[in-house]
Amino acid sequence: MKPSPRSPSQALASRIHKAVLIVGIGFLALLLRLWYLQILEGGYYFTLSTNNHLRLRPVEAPRGFILDRHGEILVENRPTFDLYATPEDVANPVEVSNVLAEILGATPAEITSKLAEGRMRPYQPLLLRKDLAEPMMVAVEERQLDLPGISLQIRPIRAYPSGGIAATLLGYVSEVNQAELEREDFQDFQPGESLGQAGVERRFDGFIRGLDGGEQIEVDARGRAIRLVNRIEPRSGANIYLTLDKRIQEAAEKAFVGKRGTVVAMNPTTGEILAMVSRPSYDPNLLAQRLTAEAWQQLSTDPTHPMQNRAFQAQYPPGSIFKLMVTIAGLESGALTPETKFNCPEHFYLGNAKFDDWKKGGFGTLDLKSAITHSANVYFYQAGLKVGIEPIVQTARAFGLGEPPGLGLGDEARGNLPNPQPKRRGQPVWTPGNTVISSIGQGPVVTSPMQLLGMVSAIANGGTIYRPYVVKKIVSLTGDVLEEYEPEAARRVSVKPETLAFVRQAMLSVVESGTGAKAKVPGVLIAGKTGTAQVVKKGEEKRQADLKDHGWFVSFAPVDNPKIAVVVLVENGGFGGQVAAPVAKALYEVAFGPHQVPAAAGTDEAGDLNPED
User: Residue 605's pLDDT is what?
Assistant: First the structure.
């Protein structure tokens, strides 16, 4: 039996039912989609919405100042304008690149390539150029309508008012590089951030570098800033007060113009570094900006090593300065006495070997004090043989030679002392001739200027080796003392007081009537010792400037109450008494000038080289 056909009303009802079902399913799907977008993905789309009109802009904190012991500014900051791009807001990179290339003097391809680096972080400001010159800055502002997504940001940049003064000690600041960013200890740094790269700037970067702030900027559809929504102020870094005395530092720099080598001065009773010059040097202001790869390559590979601090990173034969160690070793062992005399002709013969004195005709017969006063080589050839190399080496080690001084500002030269008992096969056997040449600071004897400064300071203060230091205190922006550094005695040298007293008087004679007379300052009793160290063997070619002898002068003053010790090394300068002693004199004239009368230790009177700041 066939089913009865449905009436028109029934068919209509069925279609309405299906339509309602379809519409209901559609509304359900729409509700589910809205729920998904609003609830599950709401945060994501809120961020997208916010990023469309808000931009976060970091504000770099100013680094703390570096000052001398009296509060004189050595390193500060100056304002500079940097050029940034927010890649998301650069609607037409080609057009923007053409405009910027015209302003910056670059090629459009260079700008386009730089903009492409920001594709992975489209909302993060991308640094295009640091420290814009004023004409460039004005041009960017004038053409702002053609540069959507491009902005200028003011930033503090490191400034060294005195240029290259104490550059290798202070160090420099530059942008953190890619290799550093990949290291775990640099994970908190962002590309473009500044970092202390050498010297005090590097060693104390954690104190000097402040805490960055930030700005939240509202932008329009073309990426142009409309208003500042919020700002978190940056916190400046701490100020570093050094032990340096700017007056003495400037005197050392001036006296050393045109020379290569180093000058370093220290308070021998505390270890505080008062001045440090290393030449050749560099201008850290140039490194605070972004150097080209070619400029950096030229500086870092310069054969004169301008970035090396010669005071503690270079080492040289000490020449006649080492005679002080022979003297102390001989007096302590009993092999020598102040009355010990040797005949000192122009030449000394040991078997078939001939060793010369520096003075033609020789000196005749000399006692120990006279031999030091006139720096008689032949006397110390014989004295070294009588004392023996082992006591000499032991004394030198006791006075800090052969080990890093411990300044803590980077790699330090260890120097080298003779090894009379070789421990490995193949090493040459020690001979008396080796002892002869070592006794005047040549051959295997090598020291850094800082090591000799510690040595002469111990002679001055009665036998204490102080660890040298350059930072006196670290002070926050609010005036709180965060760190304060005090003198640290590394050790006492076991030596009789009368031995050191004799050496001090002999060194006084060097300046008063001997080879160091060019260091003499009226009214100041200065103890010193000159040295001239050969770079090549006698008789070999010395016409080239870099083959001339090195000139040394080590000293301290006043003899009976030492306040300052000075070491001068003039590379390839010739006789130390002629080229190095006058440099030391310039420092003493400033330290003990008419307005710098030495005061008792611990007072605040003028002339005290160790005031309680």
Answer: 36
pTM of the complete model: 0.82
Q: Which residues contact 358 (CB under 8 A, 6 or more apart)?
A: 375, 377, 532
**What is the tens place of the pLDDT at every residue in 11-48?**
666 667 767 777 777 777 777 766 655 666 555 545 54
State the Cα–Cα distance between residues 283 and 306, nearest whole angstrom: 10
39: left (phi over 0), alpha (psi -120 to 50) or beta: alpha
Find out whether the peptide bond into 93 is cis, omega within 30 degrees of 0. Answer: no
The span from the CA of 439 to the CA of 327, in Å, is: 10
Q: What whole-number distance in Å separates Cα of residue 115 and Cα of residue 128? A: 8
Joined tokens for residue 600: 């008792």
Query: 373 near 506, Cβ under 8 Å?
Result: yes
CA atoms within 13 A on the CB side of 515: 30
Cβ-based neighbour number of residue 305 at 10 Å: 16
Which amino acid is residue 282, in one-letter code?
A: Y
Q: What share of the chain is helix, strand, coil (3-state, %, to 5)?
A: 35, 20, 40
Please list, in sequence order, all residues whose beta carbon lies within 8 angstroms of the beta carbon of residue 236, skipping any fewer than 6 positions away: 61, 62, 63, 64, 210, 477
Give yes or no: 320 in active site. Answer: yes
The pair of structure tokens assigned to 104 is 């910056």
Residue type, 213: G
**Each residue of 568-583: pLDDT tens digit?**
999 999 999 999 999 9
The residues near 522 (Cβ < 8 Å, ≥ 6 apart) are none
Which pLDDT band holds residue 611 (cuts at 50, 70, 90)?
very low
Q: Model confidence over 450-476: pLDDT tens digits?
A: 999 999 999 999 999 999 999 999 999
Catalytic residue among 194, 281, 320, 375: 320
